Amino acid sequence: MSDKANDEKQKSFEPDQENYDYLSRPPNIEAPYEHKLWPAIEAGLKEVYDPEIPVNVFELGLIYKIEILPEEDGVSDVKVTMSLTSPACPLAHEIPMWVQGAILPVEGVQGCEVELVWEPAWNLGMMSETARMQLNMFM
Fold it and tell me: How many domains, the chain?
């Protein structure tokens, strides 16, 4: 085999971030993955943690839906539908504000509305593979 063929074969086995992104995405989220603002919004959401669980709210599956509204004057509004692990969460009023605070600084975002819902109720099956690995919860 030529050196070039060996190099190509080696590259095909080297992990890269793009190939593993799907592991951090919860199975039930509705998100505009192809939108130009999505990578920055996703990165922001991954910085928001439930203080009782060492996993971010995105990978926990607490974010149910993200809508990026059509651009006006070069900026867009974002709507987030999310839940919490329990209605009894002592930070139920704060975590949605943290989510909003993670999205508003994204360049190109003008406003962010976060709606907290309890249906469907959050369950362990909503977590991403990465979250399950971090918490040693394999199903």
Answer: 1
C-alpha 139, offset from chain centre: 21
pTM over 0.85: no
Q: Read off the pLDDT of residues 110-123 as tens digits, 9 standing for 90 and up.
A: 999 999 999 999 99
CA-to-CA distance for 124 and 138, rounded, in angstroms?
Answer: 10
Type of residue at 32: P
Question: Which CATH number do you get for residue 125?
Answer: 3.30.300.130
Supply the range of the domain harboring residue 7: 3-134
Report yes or no: 78 and 111 within 8 Å, Cβ to Cβ. Answer: yes
pLDDT in tens, 48-104: 998 888 899 999 999 999 999 998 898 999 999 999 999 998 899 999 999 999 999
